[in-house]
Amino acid sequence: MGTDMTTATTISTSARTEILRRISVANGGTSDAAAAGAAWEHLAREYRRKAVLQPESVLDLLEDRLRDYDAHVERVRRGDVADVVAKMLATRGKRRMVIPAGIAPEWLPAGFEFVADEGMTAIELDGFDGVMTGSTVAIAETGTVVLQNVPGQGRRAVTLVPDYHLCLVSAADVVETVPEAMEGLRGKAELATTFFSGPSATADIEMTRIKGVHGPRHLDVILIL
């Protein structure tokens, strides 16, 4: 299963690259990858690309943004993660959770059912109370958490189908700006990557806010100090 998924991802990425190349050529761009890369590197970048806040203020900003987006956030010491997970799940009335392979076992408290995803269907995933994952990076200025298809975070479907997401974010992985995050993701561009800022929400033509259309309606975030 893993090999098949990797092959499919590689084919998809190659096809996307070729499509973008052809579009560029059709619009008068260069078909030479090296020339295109050189042009990219010489683009003026006058926006702020480095952090200016102190680490504690960066965490404050992330928490403020997430709360503003209707997420619940708690900061905990690493040794207290399992206790806080248990408290959050009990408060939400969640008992049966799907988890990605590779999640830290010390994060899983007793008294709850944690089932590792092994290529479950969307219908199977929808039968769980929620999903619990780690994360790759979090962006304070936008209140965004980034997940990738790696151990401890899992497939995109795993985090989009269940109605509730409990996400663990290490304080060491929190950056202030979007450019900092993108620089850190540069070497992992081939991985399936999901960006989310708070629970899923959208608005229809009448500007009625609807939650849960594109992902979980409810989001809890644990910031691990």
From TrEMBL:
Residue ranges annotated for the LUD domain, each copy included: 128-224
InterPro entries xrefs: FTHF_cligase-like_sf (IPR024185), LUD_dom (IPR003741), NagB/RpiA_transferase-like (IPR037171)
Alphabetical list of Pfam families matching this protein: LUD_dom
Residues spanning the membrane: none
Protein name as catalogued: LUD domain-containing protein
Species assigned in the record: Edaphobacter paludis
